[in-house]
Write a structure and sequence with these properties.
This protein has 178 residues and is mainly alpha-helical. Helix content is 57%, strand content 6%. The protein has two domains: 6-109, no CATH class; 119-153. The strands form two sheets. The chain has a two-stranded antiparallel ribbon with strand order 1-2. A hairpin with a 2-residue loop joins strand 1 and strand 2. Helix 4 packs across helix 5 (111-155).
Protein backbone atom coordinates (compact mmCIF):
# COMPACT_ATOMS: atom_id res chain seq x y z
CA UNK A 1 0.00 0.00 0.00
CA UNK A 2 1.35 3.42 -0.96
CA UNK A 3 1.52 6.35 1.44
CA UNK A 4 -1.12 9.01 0.90
CA UNK A 5 0.09 12.52 0.11
CA UNK A 6 0.45 14.79 3.15
CA UNK A 7 -2.19 17.24 1.91
CA UNK A 8 -4.72 14.40 1.80
CA UNK A 9 -3.72 13.16 5.28
CA UNK A 10 -4.14 16.69 6.64
CA UNK A 11 -7.76 16.80 5.47
CA UNK A 12 -8.59 14.17 8.10
CA UNK A 13 -6.78 15.77 11.06
CA UNK A 14 -8.88 17.86 13.45
CA UNK A 15 -7.42 21.30 14.04
CA UNK A 16 -9.74 22.43 16.85
CA UNK A 17 -10.63 25.73 15.19
CA UNK A 18 -14.27 26.45 14.53
CA UNK A 19 -14.76 29.73 12.66
CA UNK A 20 -17.98 31.61 13.31
CA UNK A 21 -18.08 34.44 10.75
CA UNK A 22 -19.54 34.86 7.28
CA UNK A 23 -19.15 31.66 5.31
CA UNK A 24 -18.47 31.32 1.61
CA UNK A 25 -18.66 27.76 0.28
CA UNK A 26 -19.16 26.74 3.94
CA UNK A 27 -15.72 28.13 4.83
CA UNK A 28 -15.20 31.20 7.01
CA UNK A 29 -14.39 34.30 4.98
CA UNK A 30 -12.47 36.23 7.66
CA UNK A 31 -10.34 33.48 9.15
CA UNK A 32 -9.74 31.27 6.10
CA UNK A 33 -10.39 32.87 2.71
CA UNK A 34 -8.97 36.35 3.37
CA UNK A 35 -5.70 35.12 4.95
CA UNK A 36 -5.39 32.49 2.21
CA UNK A 37 -5.83 35.02 -0.59
CA UNK A 38 -3.52 37.49 1.14
CA UNK A 39 -0.92 34.70 1.20
CA UNK A 40 -1.51 33.82 -2.46
CA UNK A 41 -1.13 37.51 -3.36
CA UNK A 42 2.09 37.60 -1.32
CA UNK A 43 3.46 34.64 -3.29
CA UNK A 44 2.29 36.15 -6.58
CA UNK A 45 -0.14 33.29 -7.19
CA UNK A 46 -3.15 35.62 -7.32
CA UNK A 47 -3.75 39.28 -8.04
CA UNK A 48 -6.85 40.00 -6.00
CA UNK A 49 -7.14 43.79 -5.57
CA UNK A 50 -6.37 45.19 -2.12
CA UNK A 51 -9.76 46.88 -1.92
CA UNK A 52 -11.45 43.52 -2.53
CA UNK A 53 -9.55 41.92 0.35
CA UNK A 54 -9.88 45.03 2.52
CA UNK A 55 -13.66 45.25 2.06
CA UNK A 56 -14.82 41.82 0.89
CA UNK A 57 -18.45 42.33 1.91
CA UNK A 58 -20.39 44.94 -0.01
CA UNK A 59 -23.86 46.35 0.21
CA UNK A 60 -26.11 45.10 -2.58
CA UNK A 61 -27.82 47.62 -4.86
CA UNK A 62 -30.84 47.43 -7.13
CA UNK A 63 -30.44 48.27 -10.82
CA UNK A 64 -31.76 51.78 -10.14
CA UNK A 65 -28.97 52.37 -7.61
CA UNK A 66 -31.05 52.04 -4.45
CA UNK A 67 -29.99 49.78 -1.60
CA UNK A 68 -31.29 46.23 -2.03
CA UNK A 69 -33.22 44.64 0.84
CA UNK A 70 -34.17 41.00 1.37
CA UNK A 71 -37.88 40.70 0.64
CA UNK A 72 -38.50 38.17 3.43
CA UNK A 73 -36.32 39.44 6.28
CA UNK A 74 -36.18 43.13 5.43
CA UNK A 75 -32.42 43.14 6.03
CA UNK A 76 -30.05 44.79 3.57
CA UNK A 77 -28.44 42.42 1.08
CA UNK A 78 -24.72 41.93 1.69
CA UNK A 79 -22.65 40.33 -1.07
CA UNK A 80 -19.10 39.02 -1.33
CA UNK A 81 -17.17 41.22 -3.77
CA UNK A 82 -16.83 39.67 -7.23
CA UNK A 83 -13.00 39.35 -7.20
CA UNK A 84 -13.09 37.33 -3.97
CA UNK A 85 -16.16 35.29 -4.99
CA UNK A 86 -14.56 34.42 -8.36
CA UNK A 87 -11.32 33.36 -6.65
CA UNK A 88 -13.23 31.19 -4.20
CA UNK A 89 -15.09 29.57 -7.10
CA UNK A 90 -11.77 28.84 -8.85
CA UNK A 91 -10.26 27.30 -5.70
CA UNK A 92 -13.41 25.22 -5.18
CA UNK A 93 -13.34 23.91 -8.75
CA UNK A 94 -9.64 23.10 -8.48
CA UNK A 95 -10.18 21.46 -5.08
CA UNK A 96 -12.86 19.20 -6.56
CA UNK A 97 -10.58 18.40 -9.50
CA UNK A 98 -7.78 17.50 -7.07
CA UNK A 99 -10.05 15.16 -5.13
CA UNK A 100 -11.19 13.51 -8.34
CA UNK A 101 -7.61 13.20 -9.58
CA UNK A 102 -6.50 11.58 -6.31
CA UNK A 103 -9.39 9.11 -6.49
CA UNK A 104 -8.53 8.24 -10.09
CA UNK A 105 -4.86 7.73 -9.23
CA UNK A 106 -5.72 5.39 -6.36
CA UNK A 107 -8.13 3.44 -8.59
CA UNK A 108 -5.48 3.00 -11.27
CA UNK A 109 -2.52 2.26 -8.96
CA UNK A 110 -4.36 0.18 -6.36
CA UNK A 111 -7.32 -1.10 -8.34
CA UNK A 112 -7.91 -4.33 -6.43
CA UNK A 113 -7.71 -2.66 -3.01
CA UNK A 114 -10.05 0.09 -4.22
CA UNK A 115 -12.57 -2.44 -5.56
CA UNK A 116 -12.45 -4.27 -2.23
CA UNK A 117 -13.21 -1.01 -0.40
CA UNK A 118 -16.18 -0.40 -2.72
CA UNK A 119 -17.45 -3.94 -2.08
CA UNK A 120 -17.14 -3.48 1.70
CA UNK A 121 -18.91 -0.11 1.49
CA UNK A 122 -21.82 -1.56 -0.48
CA UNK A 123 -22.05 -4.58 1.81
CA UNK A 124 -22.09 -2.40 4.95
CA UNK A 125 -24.54 0.09 3.47
CA UNK A 126 -27.12 -2.38 2.13
CA UNK A 127 -28.83 -3.19 5.48
CA UNK A 128 -28.92 0.50 6.39
CA UNK A 129 -30.58 1.38 3.10
CA UNK A 130 -33.05 -1.49 3.49
CA UNK A 131 -33.97 -0.33 7.00
CA UNK A 132 -34.40 3.27 5.78
CA UNK A 133 -36.54 2.09 2.85
CA UNK A 134 -38.76 0.09 5.19
CA UNK A 135 -39.09 3.04 7.59
CA UNK A 136 -39.90 5.39 4.71
CA UNK A 137 -42.46 2.98 3.23
CA UNK A 138 -44.15 2.67 6.63
CA UNK A 139 -44.17 6.42 7.16
CA UNK A 140 -45.66 7.04 3.71
CA UNK A 141 -48.32 4.36 4.26
CA UNK A 142 -49.22 5.92 7.62
CA UNK A 143 -49.42 9.42 6.12
CA UNK A 144 -51.55 8.13 3.24
CA UNK A 145 -53.94 6.39 5.65
CA UNK A 146 -54.18 9.55 7.74
CA UNK A 147 -54.82 11.70 4.66
CA UNK A 148 -57.48 9.29 3.39
CA UNK A 149 -59.19 9.27 6.80
CA UNK A 150 -59.18 13.08 6.88
CA UNK A 151 -60.53 13.25 3.35
CA UNK A 152 -63.24 10.73 4.12
CA UNK A 153 -64.23 12.68 7.24
CA UNK A 154 -64.60 15.83 5.14
CA UNK A 155 -66.58 14.23 2.29
CA UNK A 156 -68.83 12.00 4.43
CA UNK A 157 -72.28 13.47 5.01
CA UNK A 158 -73.24 14.34 8.54
CA UNK A 159 -74.89 11.38 10.27
CA UNK A 160 -78.65 11.66 10.10
CA UNK A 161 -80.30 12.65 13.35
CA UNK A 162 -83.89 11.82 14.29
CA UNK A 163 -86.14 14.50 12.95
CA UNK A 164 -88.00 16.47 15.49
CA UNK A 165 -91.72 15.82 15.76
CA UNK A 166 -93.38 16.69 12.49
CA UNK A 167 -96.62 17.49 14.17
CA UNK A 168 -97.80 21.00 14.49
CA UNK A 169 -99.49 22.21 17.61
CA UNK A 170 -103.03 20.93 17.81
CA UNK A 171 -104.60 24.29 17.27
CA UNK A 172 -103.11 24.46 13.82
CA UNK A 173 -104.07 20.93 12.82
CA UNK A 174 -107.68 21.08 13.87
CA UNK A 175 -110.14 22.53 11.41
CA UNK A 176 -111.56 25.77 12.46
CA UNK A 177 -115.10 25.53 13.71
CA UNK A 178 -117.65 28.08 12.81
Amino acid sequence: MQAAPTYIKNLFRPNGQKPAGRKVWSIDLETVWLPFFTATNTFGLSLIPHEALGAPLRLGYEQDGTVKFNAKSGKPVIKVVKDVADSIRLVRENFVAGLQQFSTQVQSKQGEEYKEQVRLNVEAGTPIQAKDKQALDSAIAELMAQAMAERQAITEPEPATEPESATEPESVLEPATV
